[in-house]
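Annotated sample (chain length 374).
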Amino acid sequence: MGLNEKPLSTLHEKASYDLGDFDVPTGREEAWRFTPLSRLKGLHNGKAEATGQVVVQAYTPAGVSAEWVGRDDPRIGQAYVPADRVSAQAYNAFEKALVITVPKEATPQEPIRVEVRGGGTDGASYGHTVVRVEPLAEAVVVIEHQGGAVYADNIEFVVGDGASLKVVSLQDWEDDAVHVSHHHAQLAKDATFRSFAVTLGGDLVRLSPSVSYTGPGGDADLSGVYFADAGQHLEHRLLVDHSQPNCKSNVDYRGALQGENAHAVWIGDVIIRVEAEGTDTYELNRNLILTDGARADSVPNLEILTGEVAGAGHASTSGRLDDEHIFYLQARGIPFDEARRLVIRGFLGQLIERIQIDEIRERVMSAVEAELAR
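Output written by the structure step:
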């Protein structure tokens, strides 16, 4: 497939499987202006040789298949076309792809688990995963990233007619890891998709979740929490492409930042095409800046090409702890440090409570507590 000019909106100019269709980023491009290219370890310019040690393992409940397939498998690239150079590099560099299939009308009681473990930052690794949920099936997928790595990958979530998929993605890398990933969900008629991204570890993590619809009635909810410490760069770039009538989307990301040069970037793009009448969409990003020297960039974008929408809006806030909240707790005998923790825990916990897997929810809350104790 050749170059696809402006496939989504004026905010996303091109998509292609061909690496040559993407220029090497300079940092002046809109898509790359917040990303410190010097810390990508060559993922963006072709210098990151595929000599890294990343192991991907899948654990599936009965009735769900997981198979490693070659690049010529027709299920690969069916839902997603790379939209930037690192994504295209990952698409062209992986050797085997992991394909997980949930059969029609299946409702496995246990989550599907995918573990990604890095063995160090000497050399890069590239990956590709496809999760297919066939019509009227329901599934939960947990994707965990740990260890040290220089890693770029693409994940396709293909949700069939009337199917439901819930995904929890946990980025809990070691401090030196670099991870650039694109998660794309394609929703068929009356499909439901729920995504929750948790980004805590890594030197540089750039995660790009996106959603497209192939039939009416699709419903997508994208949530996430992140906690950036000194020197960390955590970037989330979201795109929801409404191209079918009567679909819904909701985006809600919250982050906390502390320490010198802690940097969080959140970009939220939503486009409502002419044919997407009856769309109902909202996106929200909130950042809590805990110390001097931390910085949050938040850019919501909403492009509406039809006048017939059920609802559309966006909001973004970045600020410090509310002194009134702290004072209220201190006035009741709670020490300042504990009052601070309670406010931050409440701020992030409102979203974390949406994680319906007890084990993962408790792990995330424990990880946030560990961040607060630093």
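Annotation: Residues 5-10 have pLDDT under 50 and may be disordered.
Annotation: The longest strand covers residues 138-148.
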